[in-house]
Write a structure and sequence with these properties.
Helix content is 50%, strand content 15%. By secondary structure, it is of the alpha/beta class.
Length: 345
């Protein structure tokens, strides 16, 4: 996901709240949504939601358990770190792998539906440590190879997790990776200015949360008519249940601030070269978070890394559409089959 999308659209959300009483429009949307949900009920029913405790923090998980797994996939989301956005993607990935892999998606601390951490803010480094501790706690006894798949800043978190748990992890796939802050990007610098201002951060988070106090049918209509015009039903649901919360949105902005500070440094090319046989990246054509200049630099610095470019137009927030989720899931499945499953035969 991209925090920019929500920051740039938040002013559009609030005026739409004036029209939530249009019951005819909502009924039409609801009927359409029910049909979509029914058509994908078989796939989505395999994805289970669970809350666990990791180092004292409540953590949201999505899980799919294979009866006969050949590998275990740990998925790390971007920012926002809401695993519910990736429900379609995870289900499709499980199916494209022939149900031969168990899948676990771990959310970020306090990017949650409930304010379990009482408004505390968590940095990028704390989110990385959280993922490393989860592996020690939950995946220590997993006997099949463990593969990391990360999206956006989740790609960077995956690399850092690989660095800190090299013996436990087999492979790392970064999707639309955010690996370095680009000060020439107007969009990134705009978010940085907001994140550096506690007043602006609090004001925007409060404005977003004000939509969340409306009846669920109203908030769903508002989201679907503003930021989620092309989104899947599951993505709209995730936005309503998680993003329209003060503690979640405030944590998203704070995490972005710490991302910009850390990613102002150059990538650790030496580490990437040492582990280039264990790393793959998928870039988008027009993605300021993971520009093609970074693709070219990686190809130069670590030529052994498997690099691909998505040219189907699914965008950075691929997980918000069913088509994007399916395409990226098939790409990841093919990548794991070709580079991982084949080597174990």
């Amino acid at each position: 996901m991209g925090l920019l999308h929500f920051l740039s659209c938040y002013t559009k959300i609030l005026p739409l709240s004036l029209f939530f009483t249009n019951n005819c429009r909502w009924s039409k949307y609801k009927r359409r949504g029910m049909n979509l949900e029914n058509s994908h009920s078989t796939l989505k029913s395999t994805v289970d939601f669970r809350v666990c405790n990791v180092s004292g923090y409540k953590t949201e998980l999505l899980e799919i358990c294979s009866d006969d797994p050949r590998l275990h996939i740990l998925f790390i989301p971007g920012n926002p770190g809401v695993v519910s956005f990736y429900k379609d993607f995870l289900g499709s990935l499980y199916e494209f792998l022939g149900r031969s892999a168990s899948v676990t998606a771990i959310g970020h601390i306090s990017h949650t539906a409930k304010n379990w951490e009482l408004g505390k803010l968590f940095s990028l480094e704390q989110q990385i440590e959280h993922k490393v501790e989860f592996i020690k706690q939950e995946l220590q006894n997993v006997e099949v190879p463990i593969m990391l798949v990360g999206h956006s800043i989740g790609s960077y978190i995956s690399l850092e997790t690989l660095r800190r748990s090299p013996k436990k992890l087999r492979f790392c796939v970064g999707l639309y990776p955010f690996l370095m802050f680009n000060p020439l990007s107007e969009k990134q610098t705009s978010i940085q200015k907001i994140a550096e201002s506690p007043v602006l951060s609090a004001l925007i988070s409060f404005s977003i949360a004000s939509v969340g106090v409306l009846p669920r049918c109203a908030s769903r209509l508002i989201v679907s008519k503003s930021i989620g015009k092309s989104w899947s039903i599951s993505a709209v649901d995730a936005a309503c249940s998680h993003l329209l919360q003060y503690h979640t949105f405030r944590n998203m902005i704070f995490m972005a601030l710490t991302e910009f500070r850390k990613l102002s440094e150059k990538p650790d090319w030496a580490f990437m070269r040492e582990n280039q046989s264990k790393i793959a990246f998928l870039f988008g054509v027009d993605d300021h978070w993971g520009p093609l200049e970074m693709y070219e630099e990686i190809a130069k610095q670590a030529p052994g890394i498997a690099l691909s470019i998505e040219r189907e137009g699914h965008m950075h927030n691929f997980c918000c559409t069913e088509a994007g989720s399916a395409w990226v899931a098939q790409h990841v499945a093919n990548l794991l089959k070709n580079q991982v499953l084949s080597s174990s035969q």
